[in-house]
Design goal:
Order of helices and strands: EHEHEHEHEH
Radius of gyration: 13 Å
Oligomer: single chain
Largest sheet: 5 strands, parallel
Number of helices: 5
CATH class: Alpha Beta
Number of strands: 5
CATH topology: Rossmann fold
Helix content: 40-55%
Length: about 120
């Protein structure tokens, strides 16, 4: 499995990478949304982890741009990973096109359960 994590905080990327690497999952990193979108153009990923609050383009705009694609990359599973706990945020993310939603700090079990659930849900659709 090959995952792209779009996250501006290097420490958050490092923590998640350690979790995924321990499970032999390949993780690629983008420190901002424009870089992440470029990496999606150029690479093949099975899933995207997307932070919301990033300087410049935020995660919601990046999700919108991914979903606007008319190729298979526009259908990639996206899990939002955010520290923002606003009341309606999960619903807004799902409406924007995210598949699932995780709150930071991410726990190992929640991360893997959410990835498995999201992949299974996409396969059924």
């Amino acid at each position: 499995m090959k995952i792209l994590f779009v996250e501006d905080d290097a420490m958050n990327r490092r923590v998640v990478k350690e979790m995924l690497t321990a499970a032999r999952i390949e993780m690629h990193e983008a420190e901002d949304a424009p870089t992440g979108l470029k990496m999606i153009d150029e690479g093949d990923f099975d899933l995207i982890l997307m932070d919301l609050r990033m300087p410049g383009m935020d995660g919601m705009e990046a999700i919108s741009r991914i979903r606007a694609r008319d190729d298979e990359k526009g259908k990639l599973p996206i899990i939002v990973v955010t520290a923002d706990t606003a009341l309606n945020l999960r619903g807004q993310c799902l409406e924007q096109g995210a598949d699932e939603f995780l709150i930071k700090p991410v726990e190992v079990r929640a991360l893997f359960e959410t990835i498995a659930y999201t992949i299974a849900k996409r396969k059924k659709a």
